[in-house]
């Protein structure tokens, strides 16, 4: 199994897609509740597996293009088939996943095994009939959106009009129509005329869930810009600019690096957005640009370890974050296979671990605690014994229920709220 | 991962310092820590995976950190600034390719106000008031970026990089230089040749680019690098230009 690089539920939550470093997409489907297996409700089983992207070679630059899937985004379902967008660093693909559980039998011109029948053998005409067969799930690429990004794609986002989507790389954001692959519109371009003057890159972008003309993008300097596509064709001028003033007392050489935003997500209700930087998660009210309304510390105990984390490159890890269906709770990952949830109403936070040892099936997860003071209590973990290779970068929350998917390197964990 | 001779010092609280050649347990001074951070950052910028394009965000953040350190070191006079004239005489190439560290030097030359970083990070714990005599020769403590992927932002072919290698080295070392290069002898007298080979090559490179009359200096430096670079440079400059156009389109 390869390292999982993206996790995403579809709009109903019945399907869960994962992308990995090897360019594969694995889709899980939730089992329907049946009388014979009452406990199986909530279990996800493999539904489809396919190779989305292959490694490529850019001959002009003599560089490899990784096949790693950076993001997957589902399209809302409009017919029996499911559609999703998957992207690597350079190319976005639209995949159709469809089921086949019937087979036509009784053709006139060919045998059951497909061979053409001799004409003289056809003595009568019959109407082919549909017979049931074992369920087959087929994935087929329907569109390939290529050659529009010079830099590495970090985000894709489907618009609420369900007809367009955006793709963002380090310096540019393009707008596509799902039906058109040979043309895209550039809507943001922050590339300086002289590349040596580059000091800031785009790190994430997302469309507003309801307003199809609004999108946001975050930067490596910890800022978020909200743009309105009605104002101009090229949205280099933002409509709103979100930035929290820096706290001068905590300034260090690492201040900028840890302020770099790794993920931005709108709330489901469209009134808030959440950003993840290295040490914290912030909730912003879209109507207030000068500071976030809520800040949650994910692993503040790492602040004194920033130099080591810079040395081993961990400081550049890009953690994602997600909302639950009702926007009351937010979740993000940390190190040592820990992930954190924050209840926005009660202000309670929980640290849980995604590992085989601590997650027997159906067992309740025990909250974990990192010891920050000198005295370590029983069951606590000291900061120095945290495993920084076990990082949870990708998490997803079911759109309606309390089911969460947590990707721990090459393992996928699914947790569900215990109902009695 | 680290070049031999490069002392690794990490200054996180009470953590033991591992990997030092001396093996002395001591909290390094702020200047030493800062220098170490600068060295580490430069190494990081070089260690780009040549097979796949480097992560642009990471490169930008590291370069910004390097710039920050350099600005601060300029502020408290640890480095002397480059003479405006020396950059003025530079070729068009070098003027256009503004180096990643050069921001503040340009600002200074133009008399702009560079914001001072008044507060220091708590990480840099140092009770010792650091005297400026502790300023180490920056030339000797910084590793020469042999494989520096130039213009770390530009996605250029490796072949192209050789040509820009020269340019980028200029960039890096112009700002690291701590004295005006009035004479070659002065430069070399500062160098401790016993440190490691890279030093000699390093200073050879510096004088190579700064003086303009570089032939005699090539014998001082490691022949493998400087010779090949000065040969490559003129040839590849044209190629750079063409490939750049192709890449941009």
Automatic annotation (TrEMBL), chain A:
The UniProt keywords, alphabetically, are: Repeat, WD repeat
State the GO CC annotations.
Answer: protein phosphatase type 2A complex
Which GO terms fall under molecular function for this chain's record?
protein phosphatase regulator activity
List the protein's name.
Answer: Serine/threonine-protein phosphatase 2A 55 kDa regulatory subunit B
Q: Which InterPro entries match?
A: PP2A_PR55 (IPR000009), PP2A_PR55_CS (IPR018067), WD40/YVTN_repeat-like_dom_sf (IPR015943), WD40_repeat_dom_sf (IPR036322), WD40_rpt (IPR001680)
Q: Does the keyword Repeat apply?
A: yes
Q: Which domain of life is it from?
A: Eukaryota
Gene (name only) = Ppp2r2d
Q: What does the sequence similarity comment in the record state about its family? A: Belongs to the phosphatase 2A regulatory subunit B family.
**Species of the source:** Sylvietta virens (Green crombec)
Name the Gene3D superfamilies on file.
YVTN repeat-like/Quinoprotein amine dehydrogenase
Q: Does Repeat count among this protein's keywords? A: yes
UniProtKB/TrEMBL annotation, chain B:
Q: Where is the composition biased (Polar residues)?
A: 127-146
Q: Per its UniProt record, what PROSITE patterns does this chain match? A: SERTA (PS51053)
Query: For the region Disordered, what residue ranges are annotated?
Result: 126-146
The UniProt entry's GO CC annotations, sorted and at most eight, read: nucleus
Q: Which residues form the SERTA domain?
A: 30-77
Q: Which domain of life is it from?
A: Eukaryota
Q: What is this protein called?
A: CDCA4 protein
Name of the encoding gene = Cdca4
């Amino acid at each position: 199994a390869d390292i999982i690089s993206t996790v995403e539920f579809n709009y109903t939550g019945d399907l869960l897609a994962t992308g990995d470093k090897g360019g594969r997409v694995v889709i899980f489907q939730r089992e329907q509740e049946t009388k014979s297996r009452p406990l199986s409700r909530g279990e996800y089983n493999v539904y489809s597996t396919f190779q989305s992207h292959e490694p490529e070679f850019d001959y002009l630059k003599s560089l490899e293009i990784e096949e790693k899937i950076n993001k997957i985004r589902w399209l809302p379902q409009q017919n029996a088939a499911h559609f999703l967008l998957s992207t690597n660093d350079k190319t976005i693909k639209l995949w159709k996943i469809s089921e086949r559980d019937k087979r036509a039998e009784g053709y006139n011109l060919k045998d059951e095994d497909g061979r053409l029948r001799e004409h003289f053998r056809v003595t009568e005409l019959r109407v082919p009939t549909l017979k049931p067969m074992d369920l087959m799930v087929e994935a087929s690429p329907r569109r390939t959106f290529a050659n529009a990004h010079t830099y590495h794609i970090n985000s894709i986002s489907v618009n609420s009009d369900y007809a367009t989507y955006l793709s963002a790389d380090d310096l540019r954001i393009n707008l596509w129509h799902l039906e058109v692959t040979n043309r895209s519109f550039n809507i943001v371009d922050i590339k300086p005329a002289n590349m040596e003057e580059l000091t800031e890159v785009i790190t994430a972008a997302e469309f507003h869930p309801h307003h199809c003309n609004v999108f946001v993008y975050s930067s490596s300097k910890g800022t978020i810009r909200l743009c309105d596509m009605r104002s101009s064709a090229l949205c280099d001028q933002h409509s709103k600019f979100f930035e929290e003033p820096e706290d001068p007392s905590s300034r260090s050489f690492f201040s900028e690096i840890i302020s770099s935003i790794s993920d931005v997500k709108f709330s489901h209700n469209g009134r808030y957005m959440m950003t993840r930087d290295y040490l914290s998660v912030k909730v912003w009210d879209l109507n207030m640009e000068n500071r976030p309304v809520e800040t949650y510390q994910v692993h503040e105990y790492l602040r004194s370890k920033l130099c080591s984390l810079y040395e081993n490159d961990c400081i550049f890890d890009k953690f994602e974050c997600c909302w639950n269906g009702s926007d009351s709770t937010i979740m993000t990952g940390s190190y040592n296979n820990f992930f954190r949830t924050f209840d926005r109403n009660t202000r309670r936070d929980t640290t849980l671990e995604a590992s085989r040892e601590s997650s027997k099936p159906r067992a309740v997860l025990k909250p974990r605690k990192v010891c920050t003071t000198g005295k370590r209590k029983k069951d606590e973990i000291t900061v120095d014994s945290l495993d920084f290779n076990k990082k949870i970068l990708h998490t997803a929350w079911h759109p309606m229920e309390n089911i969460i998917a947590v990707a721990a390197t090459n393992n996928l964990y699914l947790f569900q709220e215990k109902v009695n | 991962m680290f070049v031999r001779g490069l002392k690794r010092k990490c200054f996180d609280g009470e953590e033991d310092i591992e990997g030092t050649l001396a093996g002395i347990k001591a909290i390094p001074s702020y200047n030493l820590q800062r220098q170490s951070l600068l060295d580490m950052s430069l190494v990081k910028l070089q260690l780009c995976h040549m097979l796949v394009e480097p992560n642009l965000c990471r490169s930008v953040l590291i370069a910004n950190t390097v710039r920050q350190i350099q600005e601060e070191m300029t502020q408290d006079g640890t480095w002397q600034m480059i003479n405006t004239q020396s950059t003025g005489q530079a070729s068009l190439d070098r003027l256009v390719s503004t180096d990643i560290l050069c921001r503040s030097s340009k600002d200074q030359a133009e008399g702009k106000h560079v914001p001072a970083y008044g507060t220091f990070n708590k990480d840099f714990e140092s009770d010792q008031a650091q005297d400026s005599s502790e300023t180490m020769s920056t030339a000797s403590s910084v590793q020469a970026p042999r494989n520096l992927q130039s213009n770390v932002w530009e996605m250029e072919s490796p072949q192209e990089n050789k040509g820009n290698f020269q340019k980028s080295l200029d960039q890096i070392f112009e700002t690291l230089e701590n004295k005006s290069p009035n004479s070659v002898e002065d430069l070399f007298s500062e160098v401790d040749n016993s440190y490691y080979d890279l030093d000699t090559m390093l200073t050879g490179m510096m004088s190579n680019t700064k003086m303009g009359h570089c032939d005699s200096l090539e014998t001082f430096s490691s022949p493998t690098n400087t010779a090949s670079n000065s040969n490559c440079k003129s040839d590849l400059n044209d190629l750079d230009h063409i490939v750049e156009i192709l890449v941009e389109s």
